């Protein structure tokens, strides 16, 4: 009789160059690869026959930072100073990743009056997201790659210094997949990365796709997706005391006589939904991160104002949302919320 | 004689080797400038320095060091009114630094040399300095605006000098052996003669405009360690445009500029460091 090895396969023999990855010990790749050996940072243990050759090569040292951070890899950032966590929510192609990428591009180019760039632990993560909009890609039109499910919930980090107060602020922005957001809204499917990003967020800006709003046939659907997202947040009851904001992206699509006033109307309707369903009075923003070249709109329009809001000083401790200075919900809103929870 | 370990840090082809050649040429000049550093003790093996200085003397491009060798050259310097220095200068390849910023892996010996140094000369070259450029920043109809079908995958090694240098500077404290204060940094903006004369008076201003990310990270670094920016032309001029430079004595060729002075003393970054030590408690 031949013995059958029924032991589960262990983690691959090797080591990850990312200091905070535990793939070598538990087989879980922090970058999200199904198998650590497929990850660019994982070095397989050499074939024993090659060991002599490897041992002759000089030893190397890993340096921290670079790529986007998995939720489990935030210690280095969080241990330095209190961070403001931001999770942009919106459907596929609403402009979540583009917004993050352009904020970073503006900071490193020193193009934001009130804030100077200090450092980032995820510069390469930002640059990977900006690549398809850069001349290095050799594309003819700027684009932003869609955030994959594997990357969803990864964090991008940047420290910035306020030029007036000299205070440093830390932003940790979750880059979530629009697919996960849409699934959450439509089917209730709760992707763990998205749920954690929502639960930990201090700010939850909800993005409304201005390009869809500009199209009369898609406008109501665009507004509805924002309202549904707001309703989903009520249903989740997992947003803590996060500040809700409403961000109309691609605002350059809403210029001209025929669409004049539509942006106001759309933001107003979404704000009303937030007031009714969440009992909050959200701030609204109109941004154009990468406007069409012939729109006459400056790239990054509106982002400085958004950044100022995200980096406003906030209380150290978390408090239940209805005990803050935010307006009390109306009896009708309370009935609705309680009804959801029953 | 106080020992001073100096590291020349910079991306490929940023003028590290040319600076070393020019300094060796000037410090060994038979008629040195008053107050400038002179060679007091010679390195055991000076073949490499001799080979690069010969090229520099006749105005030929100085071959860069792409070998990955990190063995430092050691030589003694003296100057009137200044403490004697024993310089330990490894001529390090720029590829090693680029890969450290892009791949987050560095040769252990190189990390130890950088981390254990007393002074870092951080090189940025005028002609190859680049910043992140969005497709939206291109002027319509420009050559780059046409795009191609040959899509280029993201490769961190190809990022702009502004980004790679900012990352490298941010990583320097990670290479320190201890938790002591970060190493003083003299930024050498090389090939300074390529900057239009009207803008040559302040290398710091040039840096802020042309390398904004690096300049901001440098300003942060300056909160914890001394920093100074020099504009340096180790050759003194482009030899093809101004061949007369080659006829000048070695100590008179270089151009060194900061916001307060203009000189041909290529040892000024070391003098700046010596001044720091005098005022240090």
Fold and architecture overview:
The complex is a heterodimer of chains A (342) and B (281). Chain A is built from twelve helices and ten strands. Chain A has helices spanning 23-26, 51-56, 75-78, 96-108, 123-130, 178-187, 192-200, 210-214, 219-236, 262-278, 303-310, 331-341, and strands spanning 14-16, 42-44, 60-62, 83-87, 115-119, 154-162, 168-175, 203-209, 243-249, 283-286. In chain A, helix 4 crosses helix 5 (123-130) and helix 9 runs parallel beside helix 10 (262-278). The longest helix of chain A has 18 residues, at 219-236. Residues 1-7 and 317-329 of chain A have low confidence and may be disordered. In chain B, helix 3 crosses helix 5 (161-171), helix 5 (161-171) runs parallel beside helix 7 and helix 6 crosses helix 7. The chains are: A alpha/beta (342), B alpha/beta (281).
Task: Chart the SSEs and their pairings.
The complex is a heterodimer of chains A (342) and B (281).
Chain A: E1 14-16, H1 23-26, E2 42-44, H2 51-56, E3 60-62, H3 75-78, E4 83-87, H4 96-108, E5 115-119, H5 123-130, E6 154-162, E7 168-175, H6 178-187, H7 192-200, E8 203-209, H8 210-214, H9 219-236, E9 243-249, H10 262-278, E10 283-286, H11 303-310, H12 331-341
Parallel strand pairs in A: 4-7, 8-9, 9-10
Antiparallel strand pairs in A: 1-2, 5-6, 6-7
Helix pairs in contact in A: 4-5, 9-10
Chain B: E1 2-10, H1 16-27, E2 38-41, H2 47-57, E3 72-79, E4 82-90, H3 94-103, E5 105-107, H4 108-115, E6 119-125, H5 161-171, E7 185-190, H6 203-210, H7 212-221, E8 227-233, E9 255-257, E10 262-263, H8 268-279
Parallel strand pairs in B: 1-4, 1-6, 6-7, 7-8
Antiparallel strand pairs in B: 2-3, 3-4, 8-9, 9-10
């Amino acid at each position: 009789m031949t013995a059958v090895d029924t032991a589960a396969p262990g983690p691959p023999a090797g080591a990850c160059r990312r200091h905070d990855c535990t793939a070598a010990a538990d087989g879980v790749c922090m970058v999200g690869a199904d198998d650590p050996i497929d990850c660019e940072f994982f070095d397989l243990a050499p074939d024993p026959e090659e060991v002599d050759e490897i041992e002759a090569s000089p030893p190397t040292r890993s340096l921290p930072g670079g790529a986007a951070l998995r939720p489990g890899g935030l210690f280095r950032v969080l241990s330095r100073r209190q961070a403001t966590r931001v999770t942009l929510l919106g459907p596929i192609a609403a402009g979540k990743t583009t917004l993050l990428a352009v904020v970073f591009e503006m900071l490193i180019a020193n193009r934001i009056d009130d804030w100077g760039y200090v450092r980032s632990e995820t510069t390469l993560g930002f640059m990977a997201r900006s690549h398809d909009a850069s001349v290095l890609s050799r594309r003819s039109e700027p684009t932003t790659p869609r955030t994959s499910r594997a990357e969803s919930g990864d964090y991008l980090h940047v420290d910035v210094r306020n030029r007036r107060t000299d205070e440093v602020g830390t932003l940790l922005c979750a880059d979530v997949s629009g697919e996960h957001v849409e699934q959450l809204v439509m089917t209730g499917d709760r992707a763990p990365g998205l749920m954690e990003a929502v639960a930990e967020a201090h700010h939850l800006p909800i993005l409304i796709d201005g390009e869809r709003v500009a199209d009369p046939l898609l406008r109501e659907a665009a507004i509805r997706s924002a309202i549904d997202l707001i309703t989903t947040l009520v249903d989740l009851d997992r947003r803590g005391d996060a500040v809700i904001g409403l961000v109309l992206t691609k605002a350059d699509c809403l210029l001209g006589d025929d669409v004049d006033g539509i942006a106001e109307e759309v933001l107003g309707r979404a704000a009303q939904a937030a007031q009714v369903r969440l009992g909050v009075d959200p701030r609204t923003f109109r941004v154009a991160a990468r406007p069409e070249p012939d729109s006459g709109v400056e790239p990054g329009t509106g982002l400085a104002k958004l950044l100022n809001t995200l980096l406003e000083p906030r209380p150290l401790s978390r408090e239940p949302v209805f005990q803050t200075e935010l307006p009390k919900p109306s009896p009708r809103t309370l009935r609705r919320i309680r009804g959801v929870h029953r | 004689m106080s020992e001073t370990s100096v590291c020349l840090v910079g991306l490929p082809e940023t003028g590290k080797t040319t600076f070393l050649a020019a300094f060796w040429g000037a410090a060994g000049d038979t008629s040195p400038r008053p107050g400038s550093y002179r060679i007091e003790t010679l390195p055991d093996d000076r073949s490499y320095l001799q080979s690069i200085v010969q090229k520099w003397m006749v105005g030929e491009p100085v071959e860069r060091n792409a070998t990955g060798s990190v063995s430092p050259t050691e030589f003694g310097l003296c100057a009137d009114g200044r403490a004697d220095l024993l310089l330990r200068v490894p001529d390090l390849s720029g590829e090693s630094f680029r890969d450290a910023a892009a791949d987050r892996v560095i040769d252990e010996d190189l990390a130890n040399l950088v981390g254990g140094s007393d002074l870092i000369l951080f090189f940025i070259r005028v002609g190859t300095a680049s910043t992140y450029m969005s497709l939206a920043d291109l002027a319509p109809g420009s050559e780059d605006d046409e795009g191609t079908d040959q899509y280029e995958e993201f490769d961190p090694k190809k990022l702009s000098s502004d980004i790679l240098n900012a990352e490298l500077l941010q990583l320097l404290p990670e290479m320190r052996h201890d938790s002591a204060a970060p190493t003083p940094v003299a930024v050498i903006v090389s090939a300074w003669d390529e900057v239009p004369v009207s803008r040559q008076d302040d290398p710091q201003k040039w840096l802020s405009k042309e390398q904004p990310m690096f300049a901001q990270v440098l300003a942060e670094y300056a909160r914890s360690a001394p920093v100074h920016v020099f504009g340096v032309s180790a050759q003194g001029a482009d030899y093809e445009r101004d061949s007369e430079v080659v006829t000048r004595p070695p100590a008179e060729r270089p151009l060194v500029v900061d916001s307060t002075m203009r000189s041909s003393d290529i040892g000024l970054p070391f003098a700046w460091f010596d001044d720091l030590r005098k005022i240090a408690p």
